[in-house]
Amino acid sequence: KIVDQFQCYVRPMPNDRIQQAAMNVHKLSLEFLNKNGLDAEGACEQFVDWMSKYIDINDRTTYTYQHRAWVKGWRVHFDMMFLQMFFEKLDRKDFFMYFRSHAWDIATRFLELYEDHLDMIPQHLHLKEALQFVQAVVPAGLTFHNAIDDLTCTRILEARIKELEAFKPKTGK
Fold it and tell me: Which distant-in-sequence residues (6+ apart) come within 8 Å of 111 by Cβ?
């Protein structure tokens, strides 16, 4: 159940090099981002304000490593790297004050489930293809490369993997 969300567009920073392939994935243009995006500092501040509703890094009586947020998703290590680099470009040192250093990557569980049949799986498998591979039921109208829809699809995939894991014979490893 999604109880809250944060999303915004960010104008590219002056020294950013943005590949057209990346723009094609999200179907956005530089013109759109420059017109509708926030400046990087403003976007970061809004994001930190939103995170601070749930994680108060300044309250030493309640703040511990366990209070940091999990980043969970399909091949989410790229997203973690992207967010961390965003913070670093702004000379912010507080990224890992909000997030656990390890991501919860559902792709790893998917690949472990099919470890004996990896020859059947394309090397650059995408979330949509993984859902099709495990014959998961995806509601009509969901898109891919949209953060909220990707979250929904990741949860559907995780539930399907749990079902399939229940039928996988246990090995003596």
Answer: 118, 121
